[in-house]
Amino acid sequence: MHKDINTLFECLWNNYLEVTPSAKKVHQLLASSEQGDDIINDHVAFRTFNIGKVGLDKLAAHFLALGYEEKGEYHFEAKKLYAKHFEHPDDTQPKVFISELLVEKCSPALQALVHKMVEQVDAGAVSADDFLYSGTHWQVSHSDYEALLAESEYAAWMAAYGYRANHFTVSVNHLSNFETLESVNQALKDAGFTLNTSGGEIKGSPEVCLEQSSTMADKAEVSFTDGKVAIPSCFYEFARRYPLADGKLYTGFVAASADKIFESTNAKVQCNA
Q: Which range marks the domain in which residue 23 is found?
């Protein structure tokens, strides 16, 4: 496991850029200087399956070893997901949001495909330094991907991309040139970005102390066993946090909003945007 937190996030970021080239354009658009000192990561998100060898806790272990602490848990009944978020005592470090698909709640066909994939993961790989940006440890066909997609976009994304940051998130609170999420969204749209409109462009409100929006995922070419196909990859999120009664910014997540953010990798939403 990584000994240095900044090195880990740098590796995650570079791996994310490989399939999310638009993230660099977002930086150029929102940053107040070439250095981009005001682009601060609010949180980074990961996906997995609730199968022992690769479960949420296995991913979390990489962050707990770096001083992160478990904070909140979230349930997504319709998507059959469970999630936790983690925070570091140094609040300048990004929060971490890890979700897992509750495989046993899915169809026998999906369960069989997912177990076949996870069986190909070497047990030692899960604790390796690079596991969180190691991609897929299995081979799947495009037809398998399509079969998963018909039931769970989440499972299909995992089949294609595996272990990597699903998204990074710009902290709107730290931007110098923008004060509101509305103004960030308008700048993104003016620059030609497509936003996730599931549940509205802005998910959440000042009342729940968190507003979130996101781009729709880029597309990247994935090598399946039966050929290469361009499919949705990763996206960029934007979060504005509001203070609690004690004056400190809310640091948690809102399940109803996160549920809609998951749609950012859904091609069906992309087609309707």
A: 5-265
Report yes or no on 75 lying in a domain. yes
This prediction has a pTM of 0.94
pLDDT of 57-115, one tens digit each? 999 999 999 999 999 999 999 899 999 999 999 989 999 999 999 999 999 999 999 99
Is residue 271 in a domain?
Answer: no
Residues paired with 74 in a beta bridge: 83
Three-class SS state of 224: strand
Report phi then psi at 98, rounded to 5.
-120, 125
Residue 272 is assigned to a structural domain of this protein: no
SS3 call for 63: helix
Report the C-alpha gap between 124 and 144 in whole angstroms.
26
Which helix or strand (DSSP H or E) is residue 42 part of?
strand 41-49
Q: CB neighbours of 130 closer than 8 A, spacing ≥ 6?
A: 11
The token pair at 187 is: 């700048």
Q: Domains in the chain: how many in total? A: 1
Residue 273 belongs to some domain of the structure:
no
Q: Pairing state of beta strands 69-76 and 41-49?
A: unpaired
CATH of the domain at 221: 3.10.180.50
